Amino acid sequence: MRRKTLGAELRKLRNAQDLPAEEIASLLGCSVAKVRHMENGRTSPSKAELKVLMDHYGLSQERRELLEETREGARKRGWWSTYRLPSWFQDYVGLETDAVRVRTFELEMVPGLLQTEAYARSINVVGSHMTQPEDVERQVNARIRRQERLGDDSMELHAVLSESALHRCAADSTLASGQLKRLLELGERPNITIQVLPFSVGLHASVSGSFTLLDFPLETWPSMAYQEYAVGGHLVDDKEAVAALGTVFQRLGDLALNEKDSAAAIESHLGN
């Protein structure tokens, strides 16, 4: 995200002066492809390269400090890099770490940010086609680490769960009590909204699958979406597709029970 933010800012600066990428490549003594890679966030400029660019664009000291701070942050490896996550999921976790709001709809399971350790472990064990036995604990630890963002209120989470997710959880007596009580506890936090989409609504706008929307700080990066399937997952950055999923999420939230009634629905499954 920091690479993308820095790249977007460099592209904006170049376009503001109506300069071709070829001129910047000549200035830096590099290829046009490298300039493109910097501007799309694939790579970061070195400290020397960034200084040359900032001098060329005539930036104020305040903006120079901000861009250099962003560059330094982009060079650091994310905490998730040590957990050997699948490449398609690493990208998502990196973006989630920088998101200020997460909106997620789940058909069949409790969202990862709301899972207990026991539930997360069972999900990974059941998904043995994706997670080898020796990797289960690493995956569980990564999932619990992701949840730390919820503790300092720096992230807002709005989760809509199909009632099916509650039924499947309640069906496992070893998981039900801990996971359902965890949902009730988290639902009381000011930065977390949990809604249940009951079976009684019938067909709805996302019967075809679950999805997550990520929103970032203003002036950094557009909202993105993420969809997961049985053998992987992918990010969605097409603006129209992301906007369409935003509309779908709004409709699901309108259909779902309010927070109070959702808590009552969750509690009702504790006795099943």
UniProtKB/TrEMBL annotation:
Enumerate the spans annotated as HTH cro/C1-type domain.
10-64
Under the heading InterPro entries, the entry gives: Cro/C1-type_HTH, DUF5753, Lambda_DNA-bd_dom_sf
Organism domain of life: Bacteria
Entry GO MF terms? DNA binding
What the entry lists under PROSITE patterns is as follows:
HTH_CROC1
Among the Pfam families in the record, one is DUF5753
User: What is the name attached to this protein's record?
Assistant: Helix-turn-helix domain-containing protein
Q: Which organism is it from?
A: Saccharopolyspora kobensis
